[in-house]
Each structure stands twice: as structure tokens, then as C-alpha cells.
Amino acid sequence: MKFSLDNLAAELNPVREYKTLILGLSGGLDSMVLLYAVNELIKSKKICSKLTALHINHRLQVDSDDWERFCKIRCAELGIPIIVKRLETDSLKENKSDLENKARKARYEIFESIVDSDSCLILAHHFDDQLETLIFRLNRGAGIKGLTAMPQSRVIGSGILYRPLLKIEAKSLYDFAEATELQWVVDHSNANVAFDRNYLRHEILPRIERRWPNYRESWAKSLELISEAREVTEEVVLADFSSVVSDASNKLILSLLMNLTKARQRNVIKYWLMKIAKIEIGWNKLQHMVNEVLPAASHSNLEININEYLICSYRNQLYLLRKYAPLPNVCHWDLKGSQKLVINNNGVLMANQTEGKGISGKLVDNLQVRFRQGGENFRISGRPLKSLKKILQESKVEPWIRPRIPLIYNQDELVCVVGIGISASASAAPEEIGFSLSWDFPNN
């Protein structure tokens, strides 16, 4: 699409209701064209929003301060208010690996802090930026989501980010800037083909255009098809997730998940991890999950580390759980002093006074709370002596909960496994004051 004020006005239609348009202004050609053009539309009353410029000084180039001054001067000449933010880049410079992405993250944090529900952030990304981004992501082995074109609109903070120039080619912006005699800053590092984007822009794309002059139209069609494929994939994964999710969103029914094709299993696992834990799992790990972990989980109990989470399997369920913090040492509990005990990293124990039930009131000033060490035996009142391991298995307690169940000791005798049972020697006699214990466990 050729750039013109009328075309820009049409592209801005979806954001006309916002009181303020905050324009990301670098001082380069693209953002200066957008600044000038939006200001002209406001002056001619084709847009009723107010315009504010936002310049972020990245402080990564020797000319950064000059660009900041240029933006301030041009905005003053046009009568446009400008917000200037300076990045604290010392920490970024200490480790220069992935510097561009770190600066981008810092930039977007500023965007989110400034944009509110009455404002819309507009950026000057254009069609050529889309094509360059596509090649970068292809080179990184991106999937459908990564290959999808930059969205024209998305939520940022409590407002909206909008890109009105995504259908406009860079040459058309340049022609407009020349025709209107605009000024802009030139980042001389853009000529350095040692940087990947510059190499692509100056070496690769011109050769492609010489060989295939209409490549932009073809790639634009591919981007549209990829976007459609992503929409379909998202619809399928939502339906699949709904069909396999258990009674809580962090639990999947393993047998139903295994009935899906491997491609759909991968999509569900990827969606699940993002939904619950905001984890973007890589392709190799995703393949490992579907090809090795899920088949093994269907016939054994597994625990797989995924960042700060665990994927656990038990009784035909797949669980996604945040890793638990370490357990405390022995806790002393005097029920006469408090009938509530907060256990560090492990929830809360509560004692309710009863009659003829629970732990005998005679013992309540000499109780200890411990946790499994292995090899414990226990006799629930009225039942034979068994290993604690066997009791917990028979009670169908999830494996990752078993080490955390509070064990109540009187001296060195295990007298209660909370939620499971009490020994005969510690049980309250009929008509005797007792205490029933419950454990409020901090579920993920």
C-alpha cells in the first residue's frame, strides 16, 4: 500500500476512540513520517485524539543524546508534547550477549508503565519490518506462533499497542518524507552489515528482489496464510485442552491426552505450560515430553523438572506443580497454647477440640511435628502394623505429598498421620476431651 494521509486515516480508524495517541518516536525516518502525518490529520480534524510523543534514549550509541535533542526540537516546532525516558543500560552493557532483546524488554516495560486505558501506543513498524522479522524467525526455527506476522493491535499494560503502517512499504515512507522535506536522524550503525538485520536489509533482500521482483506480495500472502493457520491451531488446542483437562486446570487426564495425535499432544502440552506457568517450552523438550515422558508416565509415577515447576504423573493424571520449598525441622506444638500451627513452607495445622475423638487431651502439651525420613511403621487404631510407605500408598496419597504430610509424635512414638489416622495409644477415650487435627496444605 502506498503511504498517504488518507490511507493513514483509514488505518487509524480502529483507535479513534482513544483520547491520546502516544507515538513511539526514535527520530528515524519511519517514526518522523508517522509523527508528521498524525499531526496533520489532527490539525485537519480527521482525528480527534491528542498526540504525545514518547522518546526512549537507549544510551547505547554515541549519538543517543543527539537523537534525544533532535526529537525534543522537532516536537517543540510542531507543538507536540514529548515524554523522554532514559534506559539504565549499565547492567545491559556488562553482558552484551542478547543486548538487543534486553533493550527491547526494558523498552516495553516503559511502554506498559505509560499506556493507560485512555491511550493507545502507536509504533511505526512497516511492511518491510514484517518481512525481515519473518526471515529472522525462520532462521531460528520458529513455529506457527513465531512466524505469524507482527499483530497490528495487542494489549499492553492497561491500554493498546497499535501499528498503523504494517501494510506500507519502506520505500513509500521514504518517498513521502522526501516530498514533504522532512528531517530525520540517521543511525550510521545501520550500514554495518556485521549486524544481522543490516546484512539482511543491505545484502540479502536486494538480491531476492532482483531475482523475484514481486516477492513482497508472495511473502505477504504467506504471512496471511500463516496467521490463518495459527487461528485454526489455537481453536483446535482449546478444544483438545477442554477434552483432556481434569477437575483443575493444572491436571490433565493422561489416557485422553495419549489418544490424541502426537502433534496435538505437543500443542496441548505447550498450551498447558504457558497457561499455568507462563513457560515457553522449546521444540526439543516438547519432543522429549511427547515421545518419551508421556508413554512412560502412562504406566509409572514420574517427576520431570521444568524450570520452577514439576510435571508429575499419578493414577492416570498429569499434574503441573510449582516446586515446593524445603521442609522445616522438627516443630514443637503445645495445643494448650495454640490450636493453630503455621508450618514454614508447608501450610497450616489446625486442632479442633472434640469429645471422645482425635488425640487424647492428655498428650497435647508434648507433641512434635515431623516429616518422613523413611522406614517408619505405624499402626492405625484397630488395624495391623504396616510401613508408613504402604499406608500412604493404600490411602492413594500423591507421591509428592507423602514427604510433606505432618507426622505427629509423642516423645519418639508416631501417634498420628494427619488426615490418615491415629494410633490406639493416643486416641481419646469415650467422653474424654480430644483434638481432631486437620492440615490445610498449600496446593499449587
Structure notes:
- It is built from 14 helices and 21 strands.
- The protein has 3 domains: 5-189, HUPs (Rossmann fold, 3-Layer(aba) Sandwich), CATH 3.40.50; 234-322, Chorismate Mutase Domain, subunit A, CATH 1.20.59.20; 331-440, no CATH class.
- It is of the alpha+beta class.
- Helix 2 (29-43) crosses helix 8.
- Strand 18 and strand 19 (413-417) form a beta hairpin.
- Strands 3-2-1-4-6-5 form a 6-stranded mixed β-sheet, with helices on both faces. A 5-stranded antiparallel β-sheet has the order 11-15-18-19-20, with no helix packed on it.
- The model has no long low-confidence stretch (mean pLDDT 91).
- The two termini are 50 Å apart.
- The protein is elongated and about 95 Å long.
Give the name of the CATH architecture of the largest domain.
3-Layer(aba) Sandwich
Integer-rounded radius of gyration: 31 Å
Q: Separation of termini?
A: 50 Å
Percent strand equals 15-25%
Helix content: 25-40%
Mean pLDDT: 91
The secondary-structure class comes to alpha+beta
Tell me about the largest β-sheet. Answer: 6 strands, mixed
How many domain regions?
A: 3
- Give the strand order, joined by hyphens, for the main sheet: 3-2-1-4-6-5
- The overall strand count is 21
Give the C-level CATH assignment of the largest domain.
Alpha Beta
Q: If helices are DSSP runs of H or I spanning 4 or more residues, what is the number of helices?
A: 14
